[in-house]
Amino acid sequence: MKPLLTLAILLTMIHNPSQAAPSFADFDQRARAGEPLTVVFFGGSLTWGANASDPQRTSYRGLMMDYLRQRYPKAPFTFHDAAIGGTGSQLGLFRLDRDVLAYRPDLVFYDFTANDDLYSSERPPLVSYETILRELIGRGIPVVQAFFGFRFNFGKDYNLENLPRRRDHLQLAAAYQTGVGDVFPLIQGQLESGKETLAHLWPFDGAHPDDTGYQLFFEAVRKGFEDAVAAKRVCHLPEKPVFGVYAHRTRDRLVEHELPQGWTRSKTYRTSFWYDGLSSRWMDDVALCSTGQPLKVEFTGTMVGVFGEADQNSLSFHVTVDDQPVLYQPNPKELGTAIWPFDLKKFGTGRLMVWRLLASQLPAGKHTLEISPIISTNGQLRIESVCFAGE
Q1: Torsion region of 110: left, alpha or beta (phi above 0 gives left; psi -120 to 50 gives alpha)
Q2: CATH class of 3-230
Q3: DSSP class of residue 204?
Q4: Quick one: average pLDDT of 161-176?
Q5: Where in the chain is the domain with CATH 3.40.50.1110?
Q6: Mind listing the pLDDT tens digit for each residue in 270-288?
Q7: What is the C-alpha to C-alpha distance for residues 295 and 273, in angstroms, rounded to an integer?
Q8: The model's pTM
């Protein structure tokens, strides 16, 4: 670990001694004694509860909140929802401070295994995921990792050997001694026994279950929490990372600097396609461009992305890093394009937060990012921050 990171962790522990050890037994004892406690749910749409009949009540998150209140009736809980659908740990790395640590949590339920691509063993998302895990535990916060899946991961296609992301996250769980809520054996067992069917668990789409599916998600995560409490588990910070960590990360909010000609400060949108995509929940004022000059940002790191908001008319843009074009390539099997889309035309008419990972394997060191809007009638480009990190 870098000295500055170590110092930050030590200062956090000194400032809040109750979080000096990420102990599930300590959390359990404090909850039984009636101490005020804060719990954060950090993840994607499966944590938010998309397709649940009432995400605040019938999602796994809602059920877990109710369970903790019943298990610890004396404790006044504060729960925070930090889940954005369609996002993974690479954006999560830059949301950690604002959406998780700012609430000084006593316990974190940590998703992203599915959204980091269960079929992938690509290293950059592993480094982001481990960096988040390492910082939470280093700050004395016990963590329950939640391993969720989609409809097509189960049934006749069930094969855990084909899910390297789950395997790697389980390796992290063993190294860091976290709680583990693993939904895979539970759901597959229900299917093989004939107690459940895929059509009943996932009646709407292949990603998000109905309430019955979320009930099983909850049961798996509850078991992970209860097992960790029963074992009096203390999360462990390995001396060396398993896959790697980003030694520094920066969420550079554009409006905090002088903006290029044609760029102005603007409030975020206040409506959205869906609640967990409401940009005003996740970001501050944005830099708005409709007829402006290219945006240039100097940064140091190996990964860089942009975080902003968009509607169906938002401007696309070109990207260069160190004067070299960066291609948009959402599918590695297809050729990339020089045009980076930042609109929501595929959804229709509406608004959402938008994250674009521009590059994740740059040479270590200093770089120059340039974003050139492709100007069109009535279009806008709205960016809150340029996010970068380095190993």
Answers
A1: beta
A2: alpha beta
A3: S
A4: 98
A5: 3-230
A6: 999 999 999 999 999 999 9
A7: 28
A8: 0.94
